[in-house]
Amino acid sequence: MAPSTVAVELLSPKEKNRLRKPVVEKMRRDRINSSIEQLKLLLEQEFARHQPNSKLEKADILEMAVSYLKHSKAFVAAAGPKSLHQDYSEGYSWCLQEAVQFLTLHAASDTQMKLLYHFQRPPAAPAAPAKEARRRPPPVARNTACGLWRPW
After folding, report:
1. Of all residues in the chain, what percent carry a pLDDT higher than 70?
2. pTM above 0.85, yes or no
3. Which of 9, 86, 94, 141 could in theory staple to 82 by disulfide, Cβ–Cβ 3.0 to 4.6 A?
4. C-alpha dist (Å) from residue 12 to 1, 3, 65, 95, 141
5. 3-class DSSP state for residue 76?
6. Top-tier CATH class for 10-80
7. Where do the structural domains in the chain lie, given as residue ranges?
8. What DSSP string runs through 91-139?
9. pLDDT of res. 68
10. How far apart are CA 124 and CA 96, in angstroms?
11. Which locations, inside or outside the cell, does it occupy (predicted)?
């Protein structure tokens, strides 16, 4: 039977720790088991390739995860470093695809059509801005007719 809250208040700090320790330990083990199960689900295809019909122990799952990460890290290192321009281009392309996909999911408005038209133009390579452009803030247009500030 679990002690009541009144009985717990009467316990010394050492006795409280003794009661709390098994609960904390169970929570820690549950977190570990949950994480191992998530690893198993993430690397399910890798496990099927190496050990198709075997029951995996926790140690097997951890070893396979370490092996997979080492292999992935070696593969990325073998691909070589990317140039800044290549990295910029890949990021721009990914962002462009995401933006176009988002814009095409919703009803077309004038702003969406302008954005889609703008995105169809070829991207400009990143260039170092001039010193004067860095010092001056970008121009800001204000719509005084309705009293709202808008950055465009």
Report:
1. 68
2. no
3. 86
4. 19, 14, 44, 59, 68
5. helix
6. few secondary structures
7. 10-80, 82-121
8. HHHHHHHHHHHHHHHS---HHHHHHHHHHHSPPPPP-PPPHHHHHSPPP
9. 85
10. 13
11. Nucleus
